[in-house]
Amino acid sequence: MGGWGDRVECGAGGWLQKLGALDFAGGTVVHISAGVSALVAARMLGPRKDFKRIPIVPHNVPLVLLGAGLLWFGWFGFNAGSALAANGLAALAFTNTNTAAATALLTWVGLDLMRTGKATAVGAATGLVVGLVGITPAAGYVTATASLAIGALAALVSYTAIQIRARTRLDDSLDVFSCHGLAGVAGALLTGVFATKVANPAGGDGWLAGNFAQMGVQLLAVVATVALAATATAVIMTLVNATLGAKAGVREQLTGLDLSEHGEEAYFGEQGATPVPGVALGGGVIVSSAAPA
């Protein structure tokens, strides 16, 4: 989806690029499209049989932090690398990327403290990723001061969306829509607010630099990306469901796909032996394979 969107919308020669849409490193074609596709897929598949009965928790929090750190480091490559040279623009994108990530991390931790009284490592990792997503379209178009606001606002939007999602039956276990889709939308629109030729003479001016029309172009880019991703994902999911089947059956869901699809577990004994009907497993109860999916 991201590659297709880049070619027909925001890439060189794309119609949104010709209209002047600003997306420095792929916030629309990568993150908004991924988030919208996740939302459509989750809605079409529906929740798992044990949804909300078994808490979804990380297997290993230190590895979550390691992965988030690797993402943070790797993000410098494709944000700063979008300058296509080792120059001042790359340095600007690098600085903005780091600043937004750190700001979003601190914002997320602060929101956790206000809501629960506790700061969590997983929350901090989530926050920094949201900040990285939010700054992606703006990295080479805004000042470092603006990146502070983008990181904080992206975190606020995503955090709020996750709390709302938790009250619904939407089974988006990784909160891809909240963390990538909505943070990407926030970043795209805020690019239209904070972009300035003071930061990048080859870029464009946004609302605060006197060009309110840029907001309209950014909004059009968001709407076009959402429409393309939602439509294409719905078509693909429909075809997959009609041919291969897109959702695991009840037994496979409760057994776990490691065992049901591959006959092995990542960590031996984590879920126990291959289950039989009526055996408790991982907080769920395995039902007969004859039960409806």
Task: Give me the secondary-structure topology.
Layout lengths: L1 H9 L4 H5 L7 H19 L15 H20 L7 H29 L4 H15 L8 H22 L10 H19 L18 H31 L6 H6 L1 H6 L17 E2 L2 E2 L8
Antiparallel strand pairs: 1-2
Describe the structure.
The protein has two domains: 242 residues, Ammonium transporter AmtB like domains (Ammonium transporter fold); 36 residues, no CATH class. It contains eleven helices and two strands. A two-stranded antiparallel ribbon has the order 1-2. A hairpin with a 2-residue loop joins strand 1 and strand 2. Helix 4 packs parallel to helix 6 and helix 5 runs parallel beside helix 7. The protein starts with a helix and ends in an 8-residue tail after the last strand.
User: How are the strands of the largest sheet arranged?
Assistant: 1-2
CATH class of the largest domain: Mainly Alpha
Q: How does the helix and strand content classify structurally?
A: mainly alpha
Per DSSP E runs of 2 or more residues, the count of β-strands stands at: 2
Count up the domains. Answer: 2
Tell me roughly what share of residues is in helical segments: 55-70%
The dominant shape is globular
Strand content: under 5%
- Helical region count? 11
